[in-house]
Amino acid sequence: MESERESGWGLPLVLAALALGLASAGALALSSASTAQHRLRASERALAQAREALLAYAADRPIDARVGPGYLPCPDLDDDGWAEATCGSLSGHLGQAERLGRLPWKTLGLPDLRDGYGERLWYAVSTRYKGLLNCAASPACVDMSPPVALGTITVRDAEGRAVHDGTRADPANAAAGAAAVVIAPGPPLSRRDGHEQRRDCEAGQCDARGRCLAEPPWRAARCDPRNYLDASVDEDNAAFHDRSDSAGRAGNGDGFIQGPVASGARLEVNDRVVAISQAEVMVRVMGRVAVEVAHCLRTSAAVEPPEAPCEASPALGRIADAWLAAPSCSARPGDPGWWNAWRPHVLFARASAGGLELVDDEGRRLANGQRFAVVVTREAGSCAPSRIDCDAAGCFRARQPPRRAAGHDALAASP
């Protein structure tokens, strides 16, 4: 009888144990999936915050009469949080390795951003957008107008297709080269070339705060991009090529690839890459130019009818140099100076006798009785901006473009 009881209880116990095991396995799988999603979201938040800070830096950084807005910081090569002072030549033929490093979070005024695996973000900047110490002495360098300030970084999706093509010299093309990229490196992998990623500080390579002491810094494991950024058959994220001169632009197809990328069952790339396009930077920079010029006109001793008025309305036209004489005006004539390049992109709209009404993109009134508006156009020499309504008596309505909308004219109105 005892053996029959044992036999009778045996099967339910086995089934219960099996069910418990399956439940535990399911719970572990759900927990693992939840952890992966949490890490992904943390990486995405950090990337978004870094991206916004870089756009704000390009538009809001201090400027003067020579060096205007538009520049992005150099990367942080030694992991101290600060951007390096310089990162290569204007054409890009020198200093290529200096344009890839960690995000300079201290320079950007950010907290110490980390991805979902606790790693600091990496960052690459195109040669045209990098900050240079010698800009004040170079007319070519201070020209950050829309036709000239081209992104030169190629970025591919996980299938290897170019989303941003750094070989294209067309600022109007949405698929043209990126101005910069930010990368969440994720956990260590064995790279395609067999290199095992290690991220520690060996003796003598770093100081007590973790700053790399090697010269150049990437000789230290902690600052070597190969120990953080991965490679696929299409791209190696630990190195890229970007040239702003026509002779070297053909090589700009060597860029970055967005992970995850797998080869069979093997994960090759887990880097999360976010690109910043030329159009995204330029819409912010155009807004800054509009605000700076509006300030100059508000503080000017006299503002007359526009110089070289447009055919459609004598109240719309170019800004005379005499209006830019106020000491606090950064849009000052002079060579070298940023205003020289931007002058053909800027229009002055003088209000009619009843004042100028400012409305949003849906026609809702934002302000009334404005004295003038400044319009910054992507196309040099444009005399028919779509956001200003004028007649023979003056300009009576201005439409503010959607916030951060790329591809539009920028506008600033003043009471």
Could you describe the 3D structure shown?
There is one protein chain. By secondary structure, the chain is α+β, with helices and mostly antiparallel strands. It folds into two domains: 32-277, no CATH class; 299-414, no CATH class. 20% of the residues lie in helices and 18% in strands. The protein has helices at residues 2-60, 278-298, 338-342; strands spanning 100-102, 122-125, 155-156, 162-164, 178-184, 256-257, 261-263, 266-269, 272-277, 307-309, 316-318, 346-350, 356-359, 365-370, 372-376, 388-391, 394-399, 410-414. The strands form five sheets. Strands 10-11-12-15-18 form a five-stranded antiparallel sheet, covered by helices on one side. Strands 1-2-5-9 form a four-stranded antiparallel sheet. A hairpin with a 5-residue loop joins strand 13 and strand 14. The chain starts with a helix and ends with a strand. The mean pLDDT is 89.
List the helices and strands and how they pair.
Blueprint: H1 2-60, E1 100-102, E2 122-125, E3 155-156, E4 162-164, E5 178-184, E6 256-257, E7 261-263, E8 266-269, E9 272-277, H2 278-298, E10 307-309, E11 316-318, H3 338-342, E12 346-350, E13 356-359, E14 365-370, E15 372-376, E16 388-391, E17 394-399, E18 410-414
Parallel strand pairs: 3-6, 13-17
Antiparallel strand pairs: 1-2, 2-5, 3-4, 5-9, 7-8, 10-11, 11-12, 12-15, 13-14, 15-18, 16-17
Helix pairs in contact: 1-2
